[in-house]
Amino acid sequence: MGRRILEMAITWKYVKPLKHPNAIEVMCNNRGIHIPAKTINALKTHNGGRPADKSFDTVCETDYVFSSLYSFNQDDPNSIIKDLDLYIERGLFPIGIEAGGNAVCLELESNRLVLVNHENEKREPIILESNAELFSELA
Description:
- InterPro entries: Knr4/Smi1-like_sf.
- The protein is 22% helix and 25% strand.
- By secondary structure, the protein is an alpha+beta fold.
- The chain starts with 11 loop residues before the first strand and ends with a helix.
Protein backbone atom coordinates (compact mmCIF):
# COMPACT_ATOMS: atom_id res chain seq x y z
CA MET A 1 0.00 0.00 0.00
CA GLY A 2 1.38 3.42 -0.92
CA ARG A 3 2.35 5.97 1.68
CA ARG A 4 0.39 9.21 1.73
CA ILE A 5 2.55 12.31 1.90
CA LEU A 6 0.98 15.42 3.39
CA GLU A 7 2.29 18.80 2.32
CA MET A 8 2.10 21.51 4.92
CA ALA A 9 1.72 25.05 3.69
CA ILE A 10 4.04 27.72 5.05
CA THR A 11 2.40 30.37 7.19
CA TRP A 12 3.37 33.87 6.08
CA LYS A 13 3.27 36.87 8.42
CA TYR A 14 3.35 40.61 7.70
CA VAL A 15 2.40 40.24 4.04
CA LYS A 16 1.93 43.60 2.32
CA PRO A 17 -0.60 43.70 -0.53
CA LEU A 18 0.87 44.93 -3.79
CA LYS A 19 -0.22 48.50 -4.51
CA HIS A 20 -0.09 47.68 -8.23
CA PRO A 21 -1.26 44.08 -8.82
CA ASN A 22 0.88 43.58 -11.94
CA ALA A 23 3.97 45.39 -10.65
CA ILE A 24 6.26 42.35 -10.87
CA GLU A 25 5.19 41.43 -14.41
CA VAL A 26 5.62 45.06 -15.55
CA MET A 27 9.11 45.25 -14.00
CA CYS A 28 10.11 42.01 -15.74
CA ASN A 29 8.64 43.06 -19.10
CA ASN A 30 10.32 46.47 -18.94
CA ARG A 31 13.68 44.78 -18.35
CA GLY A 32 13.23 41.95 -20.83
CA ILE A 33 13.56 39.18 -18.24
CA HIS A 34 11.50 36.05 -17.69
CA ILE A 35 10.57 34.79 -14.23
CA PRO A 36 8.55 31.57 -13.88
CA ALA A 37 4.83 32.23 -13.33
CA LYS A 38 4.94 30.11 -10.17
CA THR A 39 7.60 32.40 -8.67
CA ILE A 40 5.73 35.56 -9.65
CA ASN A 41 2.51 34.23 -8.11
CA ALA A 42 4.28 33.41 -4.84
CA LEU A 43 5.92 36.85 -4.71
CA LYS A 44 2.59 38.56 -5.38
CA THR A 45 0.72 36.46 -2.81
CA HIS A 46 3.34 36.83 -0.05
CA ASN A 47 4.84 40.25 -0.94
CA GLY A 48 7.28 41.33 1.79
CA GLY A 49 6.11 38.50 4.07
CA ARG A 50 8.02 36.53 6.66
CA PRO A 51 7.76 32.73 6.68
CA ALA A 52 7.03 30.94 9.94
CA ASP A 53 9.40 28.06 9.04
CA LYS A 54 12.62 29.85 8.25
CA SER A 55 15.65 27.57 8.19
CA PHE A 56 17.28 26.36 4.99
CA ASP A 57 20.58 24.95 3.76
CA THR A 58 22.91 25.67 0.87
CA VAL A 59 25.50 23.35 -0.64
CA CYS A 60 28.12 25.11 1.53
CA GLU A 61 26.41 25.64 4.90
CA THR A 62 23.38 24.66 6.95
CA ASP A 63 20.86 26.47 9.12
CA TYR A 64 20.53 29.78 7.32
CA VAL A 65 17.49 31.79 8.42
CA PHE A 66 15.17 33.21 5.77
CA SER A 67 14.09 36.61 7.12
CA SER A 68 11.58 37.83 4.57
CA LEU A 69 10.63 38.22 0.97
CA TYR A 70 11.44 41.55 -0.58
CA SER A 71 8.54 43.89 -1.21
CA PHE A 72 7.71 45.14 -4.68
CA ASN A 73 5.97 48.25 -3.29
CA GLN A 74 8.10 51.38 -3.70
CA ASP A 75 7.42 52.78 -0.20
CA ASP A 76 7.84 49.63 1.92
CA PRO A 77 10.91 49.45 4.19
CA ASN A 78 12.06 46.17 2.61
CA SER A 79 11.35 47.28 -0.98
CA ILE A 80 13.75 45.95 -3.60
CA ILE A 81 12.70 48.44 -6.28
CA LYS A 82 15.69 50.81 -6.02
CA ASP A 83 18.26 47.97 -6.10
CA LEU A 84 16.51 45.70 -8.61
CA ASP A 85 18.64 46.70 -11.60
CA LEU A 86 21.89 46.09 -9.67
CA TYR A 87 20.85 42.44 -9.27
CA ILE A 88 19.53 42.06 -12.81
CA GLU A 89 22.86 43.32 -14.21
CA ARG A 90 24.50 40.36 -12.42
CA GLY A 91 21.96 37.86 -13.82
CA LEU A 92 19.91 37.66 -10.63
CA PHE A 93 16.34 38.38 -9.60
CA PRO A 94 16.14 39.19 -5.87
CA ILE A 95 13.44 37.34 -3.96
CA GLY A 96 14.22 37.75 -0.27
CA ILE A 97 16.78 38.27 2.42
CA GLU A 98 18.49 35.97 4.90
CA ALA A 99 19.11 37.00 8.53
CA GLY A 100 22.79 37.80 7.87
CA GLY A 101 21.95 40.29 5.13
CA ASN A 102 22.55 37.92 2.21
CA ALA A 103 20.09 37.94 -0.68
CA VAL A 104 18.03 34.95 -1.79
CA CYS A 105 17.87 35.25 -5.57
CA LEU A 106 16.72 33.44 -8.64
CA GLU A 107 19.52 33.06 -11.18
CA LEU A 108 18.01 34.29 -14.43
CA GLU A 109 19.95 31.92 -16.69
CA SER A 110 19.43 28.71 -14.72
CA ASN A 111 16.22 29.47 -12.74
CA ARG A 112 17.85 28.05 -9.62
CA LEU A 113 17.65 29.65 -6.20
CA VAL A 114 20.93 30.86 -4.75
CA LEU A 115 22.07 32.68 -1.66
CA VAL A 116 24.26 35.66 -2.63
CA ASN A 117 26.81 36.74 -0.02
CA HIS A 118 26.54 40.50 0.49
CA GLU A 119 30.28 40.87 1.19
CA ASN A 120 31.88 38.93 -1.66
CA GLU A 121 28.95 38.18 -4.01
CA LYS A 122 29.69 34.45 -3.83
CA ARG A 123 26.68 32.37 -4.86
CA GLU A 124 25.66 29.27 -2.93
CA PRO A 125 22.96 27.09 -4.49
CA ILE A 126 20.10 26.49 -2.07
CA ILE A 127 19.20 22.88 -1.33
CA LEU A 128 15.49 23.05 -2.04
CA GLU A 129 14.76 19.91 -0.05
CA SER A 130 16.14 21.56 3.12
CA ASN A 131 12.86 23.45 3.37
CA ALA A 132 10.63 22.02 0.69
CA GLU A 133 7.54 23.80 1.96
CA LEU A 134 9.15 27.23 1.69
CA PHE A 135 10.88 26.77 -1.64
CA SER A 136 8.15 24.76 -3.40
CA GLU A 137 6.29 28.02 -4.03
CA LEU A 138 9.34 30.05 -5.04
CA ALA A 139 11.20 27.75 -7.42
